[in-house]
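Per reviewer request, we include the raw input and output of the structure prediction for the construct analysed in the revised manuscript.
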Amino acid sequence: MEITSASGAAALVWLCVAVPLLSSGVLLVAGKRVKSWGHWLAVGASGLSLLVGSAALVQLIGASPEERAMRVRLYRWFATGDFAVDLSLRVDPLSVTFLMLVTFVGTLIHVYSVGYMERDPAKTRFFAYLNLFVASMLLLVLGDSYAAMFVGWEGVGLASYLLISFWNQVPANAAAGKKAFVMNRVGDVGLLAAMMVMVSSFGTVTFDGVAAGAAKAGSGTLLAIGVLLLVGACGKSAQFPLQAWLGDAMAGPTPVSALIHAATMVTAGVYLMVRSGFVYAASASAQLAVAVIGTVTLVFGAVVGAAKDDMKKVLAASTMSQIGYMTLAAALGPAGAAFAVFHLVTHGFFKANMFLGAGSVMHAMDDEVDMRRFGGLHRRLPVTWATFLAGYLAIIGFPFLSGYFSKDKIIEAAFVGEGWRPWVFGGLTMAVAGLTAFYMSRLFFMVFHGEERFASEGPEAKRPHEAPATMCVPQIVLAVGSIGLGFVLNAAGFVEWLEPVVGRAAHGEPVLPVSAITLGTLALVAAGAGAAWKMYAASPVPTRAPEGGALVRAARADLYQDAFNENVFMKPGMALTSAVAATDARAVDGAVEGVAKGTSAVGRLSTRLQNGYARTYASYMTFGVVIVLVAALAARL
């Protein structure tokens, strides 16, 4: 694909990064002095990025497929010997798709946050962090090299840490932020190592340079790069085995959860996989590793989501599962990669919609998140109920809503192939579609339907009320997208749109008829939703969770992922650290202190010998003479 120098609106995409970054700096420096209007500055900065991105999108749509790849060179970043890296931005269908998702959904979340954080004394700092988050994610997706992308990659990691632990006066919130930060650093090591292999093998970290090198590289090099990139993606996108931080990330304000799950952070790993598709196209082993990780994660997230009672943690588990669908799709060739991005876009709308809906429920219920303490809220919160309904139906794949057009295409693509793979990957994606319908229906019915299970009188009385317009309007806009975006974009059009980036999609027939896959998926969805209705809407819901079987207890404990990490990594690591510290204290420090003490002892001895008295020195001389004479006599004899 020929890369041309950007012109027109595309040449201004650097503003998409610079404006929210500048706004973030202004808000952090100004602090309380701009408390009355600083949040609108943040909203405006995100909105301006959306306008510039929209203009770039229009320009790309009007260009021919061969001209839909442009570069904005800003300056020479650094150079050493023959190795040099420019800070450049890339404007192509993939980067602009992410640009539009981040800025559109991000701006709506900014507006929602105006109402949600209205009474928070640190809201100026909150909006500064939101702007930093958006700017970092835009640099990540617009960077024209792995090095530029890595700066944005670290930026979203920093911003997520600051926002997850925003209310760090609560120790659990501070711990959640640190957990996310540390686990992401593990993934970052993989991305850094992949870049090192690129430099040593190809002498470059630009996307075009690595793509050219990959076409001639050996299988071992490609496998190493592919697996290391996958490690990086697992950290950012909460894929197995680096997924343990995502549920705890719900400690942050709800708009943060929406931004992380819908438009930033967890989508970064999918972007990395799709952008690096040329590596996986050349390495079947690395491609299989991506498919396996995605499949394991989509099952893992669904099982955990089916057992949680915390509304936000159910949504977090569903994100983990849906990103698993996208990760699997990214390993299914050009068509699969296009479907992954297609589902990522629709998911961004309906997941942001549901997280903001959860925030409205919390706003109405004094920050309560236990679904067993809700029920019947459709009568109290009609706008939130209607908008949440749109997102819920979209995620379960209700016919002709956005999730139906995007997720079902991934299921269909998973059934394409030979041998065991289509049966395993396709069968599991279809089964998890039914499980998704169950646990998302469980959430919807427990929150909005059935009898009211919250106190309406007494000291713990709840008086649910609808959120202000600044919170409701973004939900309505996202609900409209949840309903119609999949139909407007359509899968075939999306494949064609991304073809200049992911390559031409080869036509492959599923091992089962498409009609059978569609009907089978819909039957499982109906069964899952029906089971949830019978258990949680048509029957009374206890306010305390029953004990459940072994699998239920395991799912409530996140399938013991924290226990595994603590026993396999944390405790041995702490023991090793203690041993190293003890060795340092006793051996290294002991040796140094021993030399010091020996030197002091020699000094004290010298002080006694050199006391300044003439008689002492005379005795030394007499003693020395006697020794010499005795030695001389001994030599003669």
